[in-house]
Design goal:
By secondary structure, this protein is of the alpha/beta class. The chain contains 12 helices and 10 strands. The chain folds into 3 domains: about 100 residues, Helix Hairpins; about 120 residues, Rossmann fold (3-Layer(aba) Sandwich), CATH 3.40.50.720; about 80 residues, Alpha-Beta Plaits (2-Layer Sandwich), CATH 3.30.70.1450. The strands form 2 sheets. It has a 6-stranded parallel β-sheet with strand order 3-2-1-4-5-6, sandwiched between helices. The longest helix has about 50 residues.
């Protein structure tokens, strides 16, 4: 039985003892003592205050035996209740402290991880996708209860605090992070956090949420690498559902497939990679990793080469967009960035 259930049982037991004691004294005196006097007699008996017997039981052996039972059971239950409550407070606080220390140690070990700022409806979808694609991430939010409840369903690392405070980003390892996703509900907060993050780590990639259309330019100037508008994305999605339902259905099934986690991912080929200098036919991307190469982009260029041919040479710094299982992508990324 958990401590919470034991506390509930103790409360019920105490109430029953007080009710039983009151009714017992009332029955022993055959109704001569009032219910208030009987309740008072029960209280002073259990607490051993000793203010004197207000219920006449000095000549009643049954009354004395009943009083002994009330005292022993009441004192035992109250003592057990105090010890259980103490354990609840001490163990709960101790568990919280140990849990925070364990989480901080885990965060300190992270490198090239992601930081998600905000745990609203959008932030929840962000961490679900990061979890499915096996990314390391830390969530920052001020709502501790929501963070704890969601982490019990899907364990993840989190920090409780105000994202406008720079110290919480230091705790989240901002100097080692690969990217920050800012998804607070207000554009002003997103703007402030974006400026702070850019100052703390000039190299980190920042993706910010823009609620209003005019917020995009300000967020870009503040340091965001990209701004995502839920309203814009929602509108494009509705149009796509109307004019290209099969394509949208394919993407939906891909994202929601519970059996396989298939995604469109990008991998950057390092100069030190064994694949650098090879063509796509000999790279083994299709045969060994089970991935479909959808596009490539040489370093420094803006345009992609869609559906590249098998003779395309993989170069250092080249971005390769692939479609396939996340495990295959993970293995390919390990080879491309040794």
């Amino acid at each position: 039985m958990t401590i919470q259930n034991r506390l509930r049982a103790i409360v019920v037991g105490v109430v029953l003892i007080f009710v039983g004691g009151t009714l017992g004294y009332h029955a022993i005196t055959r109704g001569q003592a009032s219910l208030l006097d009987c309740f008072y007699m029960t209280v002073i008996s259990i607490t051993t205050v000793g203010y004197g017997e207000v219920v006449p039981i000095e000549n009643s052996p049954l009354g004395r035996i009943f009083t002994i039972v009330v005292i022993v059971s009441g004192m035992g239950l109250l003592t057990y209740g105090v010890s259980t409550l103490t354990a609840f407070l001490v163990e709960g606080e101790l568990s919280a402290i140990l849990g925070r220390r364990k989480m901080m140690k885990a965060i300190d070990k992270l490198n090239n991880h992601f930081i998600v700022v905000g745990m609203g409806a959008t932030g929840y979808q962000v961490i679900c996708e990061m979890d499915k694609t096996q990314r390391d991430f830390v969530v920052i939010d001020i709502d501790e209860e929501r963070l704890r409840r969601l982490s019990e369903q899907h364990p993840f690392l989190y920090l409780v605090g105000d994202a406008t405070d720079d110290s919480i980003f230091h705790d989240a390892g901002i100097d080692r992070a690969e990217g920050v996703v800012v998804v607070l509900p207000d554009d002003k907060d997103n703007l402030f956090v974006t400026i702070s993050v850019r100052q703390l780590n000039p190299r980190v990639r920042i993706i910010a949420k823009g609620v209003e259309s005019h917020a995009r330019g300000k967020l870009i100037k503040a340091g965001a690498d990209s701004v995502v508008s839920p309203n814009l994305i929602g509108g494009l999605r509705m149009v796509s559902e109307m004019i290209r339902p099969a394509a949208v259905g394919f993407l939906d099934l891909m994202l929601r497939d519970s059996q396989h986690t298939v995604r469109i991912e990008d991998v950057t080929v390092s100069d030190r990679s064994a694949l650098c200098g090879r063509n796509l036919r000999d790279s083994g991307i299709r045969q060994q990793y089970g991935l479909l190469v959808m596009a490539t982009r040489p370093e420094g260029q803006l345009q992609f080469d869609y559906n590249p041919g098998p003779e395309t040479i993989l170069q250092g710094g080249m971005d390769v967009v692939v479609l396939g299982d996340v495990e295959g992508v993970k293995n390919l990324r390990a080879v491309c960035t040794p």
